[in-house]
Structures are given as C-alpha cells and as structure tokens.
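Please predict the structure of the following assembly.
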Amino acid sequence: MAFESLGEKLQNVFKKLKGKGKLTEKEVNEAMREVKLALLEADVNFKVVKEFIAKVSEKAVGEEVLKSLTPGQQIIKIVDDELTELMGGTGEKLVFAKNPPTVIMMAGLQGAGKTTACAKLALVLKKQNAKRPLLVACDVYRPAAVKQLCVVGEQAEVPVFYLEGERDVVKIAKEAMEHAKKHGNDVVILDTAGRLHIDEELMDELIRLKEATNPTEILLVIDAMTGQDAVNVADSFAKQLDITGVIMTKLDSDTRGGAALSVRHVTGKPIKFVGMGEKLGDLEAFHPDRMASRILGMGDVLSLIDKAQEAFSEQEAKELEEKIRKSRLDFNDFLSQMQQIKKMGPLEQIIKMIPGVDAKALENVDIDDRKMGRIEAIITSMTPYERENPGILNASRRIRIANGSGMRVQDVNQLVKQLEQMNQMMKNVNRGPLARKMKKKGKKKKK
Ligand SMILES: Nc1nc2c(ncn2[C@@H]2O[C@H](COP(=O)(O)OP(=O)(O)O)[C@@H](O)[C@H]2O)c(=O)[nH]1
Ligand SMILES: [Mg+2]
C-alpha cells in the first residue's frame, strides 16, 4: 500500500514527541525538519512541502494549548488537520445531473487505468447509488480497447454501448445518449482514448466530446505510480479541459504516494476516487481525513479526541469532580453524563474508535443505546426535587414515575439502586488513599 514509508517516518517523528510534557522551540523545529524530509522523500511536490511546513509551524507556535492534549499530541493533530486540508478537506462527492442521464467522461494518458475505472465506477454507482449506468466505448483507435471495455462491462454486469467500425467519437457518444434515454440508463460513462503523452490531437478530441455531451463530471484518471509526472499531467489537463475531479489509480502499489498529496494543491481539483487494486471492486471514494489518519497510523483516535472535547466543558468536569468527592451524585449527574456521552455519537462507534479495542470482540457485546433512552425517560419523569434527592423516592413516587415514563416499577427500582451503588462505591474510594490526595487538592482550591 502506498504511503507506508511516509507513514512510518512521520510516526517515528511523533513517537519522540508524544511522551514529552513540554516542547522546546528547538524540538519543534527539529520535528518540522524531519516531517519536511519525510514528505520530500515521499515525492511530494517541493512547493507543496514548503507551504505545508510553514502552515504547520505557524499553528504549532500559535495554537492555544488545549488542556486535554500534550504538546506532542497537539502537533500530531495539527499535522493531521493540515494533511487533510492539503488533500481537499471534507472530500467531494460525485455530482449527478438534474436531468438524467448524467454524463461522466473519463480522460487520461494511456495505461492510467481509464477503462478499468469506467467499470469500477459503474459498479460503485450501481451498488451504492442504485444507478443504471451505461458504458460507452469512445476509444476507437485500438481494436482491443472496445473489447476490453466489453469484458469489464460484462464482469460488472453493466451494458456497454459501441458502434462497430465507427471512428467518429462524437457520433458514438451522441447515439449512446439516445440509447441511454431509451433504455433508462441514468448515467453514461464515456471511456476515451489516451496517448503516451499529452498532445493536441488528444485534447482536441476530448474537447469536442465534451462540447457534444456536456458532461456533469470530467474525471481525470492518473496513475499514482508515476509520481510528480502524474501531477504535471493533471495540471495541464485541468487547464485545458477543465476537469471536475481526479481518479487516482494504483494506490495499492508501493508508490510513495506524493502524487496523492500534491495533486489537489497543484491543480485545485479534488481526488474523488482512488483505485486500490486491479479487481473491479477496488475503487474507493476518497476521504482526505481518513487518508491522513491512515498515513499517520492513528485510526480514528483524533476524531475521538475531537468528540470528547466537544462534549465536555472544563466547568462541567470540575463540578462533577466536586460531587464525586462528596459521594453525592444525584440523578441530574446521571442524566448529564448520559447526554454528554450521547453527544459523542452512538456508543458502539465510540468504543470502536478506542485504540486497541478489537471490533470483533465487540460483536457479542450488547451496547444498547436504547437502554440509555429508557434511563433518560425515567429520570425526566422525576420532579427536579426528586432528582436532587433520590432518598425520598418511596413506593408511590416510584409508581408515578414508572407510569409517567412508560417503564415498569422494576426498571425504576433498578435505576435507583444503581445510583445508590455508585455513591457507595464513591464512598469507599473516598476513604482510600486516592481520596486523601483528592481532598488535599480540594482544600487548595477553596483558598
Ligand atoms: N494495481 C492496480 N492496477 C490497476 C489499477 N487500475 C488499473 N490498473 C491496471 O492498469 C492497467 C491499465 O489499465 P487500463 O484501464 O487498461 O488503462 P487505460 O489505458 O487508461 O484504459 C491494467 O492492467 C489495469 O489492470 C489499480 O487501481 N491498481
Ligand atoms: Mg483504455
């Protein structure tokens, strides 16, 4: 897989930073120097590297220090954010025409992977977007080209339109559009010819095809293995043909990956899909954020940090600490804890993001968001006074709450018991050595 070596190098830089409490300017500079070298070695365009480092350095110095992150983590987060930004930020989806059929035109040099990409894309559209694509053979110069499209079309189980012996690609495309309208094909994918190099004849043909079919998407297919050449090709295609996006193929190879990191910045055009293998199923929508995290080898830890930061304010955390110290958790705390966890998203997803958690091991665990919903229903059926003073919940109150929340009295009993147990646990903790530490801290605060 591409990026392996870049990922390794960056991860090594960060390993050195991670454990440190504070970073000196010298340490930051040294880290930046190593990041720069790693990017250059990965064949990232040197102008891109220069700007990237400047941005990261500026942020690393200027960034307000978040309480929850160490300086090392902070820098990793900045690099991750900037890598994501570099590759296009949020990622751009394929656009469909308001009035079908949507025309998608492929362009690119010979061997880049256009014909394969046509069939791969058709398969994605069929499966994920419930479209009925039609492939069109507009590479008329090599007899084998039409055949190849027919073969991959058959594998993907999508129809292929071609005109035997016809040399006029505009005519083929126009007839294909008629065919599509008649047969209910809502997407038309044009496979086109490539050359070994960009030449005028090739561009001319593509421009005529574009004018005749008014494509919603013109996707440039480039081969990641050709590195900066691919970026240069993309740049001139972008200028002459006004492409709408890029399909980067062969990212499964051990290319250093620099092209994928540079192409957006150099051409201004987003990568929309990446080819991850020769098989027809090997086309993935491109997500800059996921790619950045993949390069940095951190799974989704960063989004976990983001989410935690959103959900808990510092004030809230302090208040909770105070109550825990006094073993006086009430139902308001219970409720607000649950709501904070909810803000972070479905429990199951959160748990899967924690590094070291084996997703398979979770399969049998019942992480029930509905259970949280039921608890919430019970608590919100209590009066504010009851929530703050769980001790007054006698039988008649419990019956009222059960009726109000649509739960059984047993459920209410169980919840009350849970809270009691929690407080009991806190009491035990508070008598232990940990508690003495916390008490000291508490006294200091009160001064
Ligand atoms: N490993 C790998 N090979 C690919 C990928 N995409 C295309 N290829 C191979 O690249 C070669 C050229 O592909 P083709 O679609 O014929 O290119 P075209 O000349 O642009 O139409 C074929 O052997 C494909 O199997 C990819 O994402 N990964
Ligand atoms: Mg081809």
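The beta strands are 102-107, 133-138, 160-161, 187-192, 217-223, 245-249, 271-275, 283-285. The CA atoms of residues 110 and 372 lie 57 Å apart.
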